[in-house]
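Propose amino acids for all 154 sites.
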């Protein structure tokens, strides 16, 4: 897919990732085309699934969610049915910002946002520890975010 993006498409995507609310006229000016071709390119990238949506990015810090904990989760059952049960249940926990099934020393890695350690402990005890098929967890508390949301087309 990346090979089929011309420099104009790349510039459009770069601008949209910085500000998805940019007016098409301003975007067109920045990429050196008129509004209609830019709008058509955006629509095409949406239709082929390259652009999957637009959303507001909230500030966790302004919401008081200053604590980030990465949680390794090991499962006592890794058959497909058990994994699907876990996946469905973990998606329902709003404090879990990200969840990845991984290869390595554990089965899943979760990024959990909370107000403070007491709040994280409550989330762990009342929501995460009761998820199906968990055998154990290991927590890693973030001290500082060095890079966040740094995706670009490079």
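Proposal:
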């Amino acid at each position: 897919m990346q090979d089929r993006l011309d420099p104009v498409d790349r510039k459009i995507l770069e601008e949209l990732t910085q500000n998805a609310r940019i007016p098409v006229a301003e975007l067109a000016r920045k990429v050196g085309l008129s509004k209609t071709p830019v709008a058509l390119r955006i629509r095409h990238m949406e239709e082929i699934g390259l652009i999957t949506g637009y959303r507001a990015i909230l500030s966790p810090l302004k919401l008081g969610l200053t604590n980030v904990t990465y949680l390794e989760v090991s499962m006592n059952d890794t058959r497909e049915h058990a994994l699907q049960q876990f996946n469905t249940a973990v998606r329902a926990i709003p404090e879990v910002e990200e969840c990845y099934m991984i290869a390595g020393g554990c089965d899943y890695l979760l990024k959990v946002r909370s107000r403070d350690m007491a709040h994280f402990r409550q989330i762990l005890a009342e929501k995460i520890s009761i998820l199906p098929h968990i055998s154990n967890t290991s927590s890693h508390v973030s001290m500082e975010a060095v890079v966040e949301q740094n995706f670009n087309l490079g």
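The longest helix spans residues 35-47. The radius of gyration is 20 Å.
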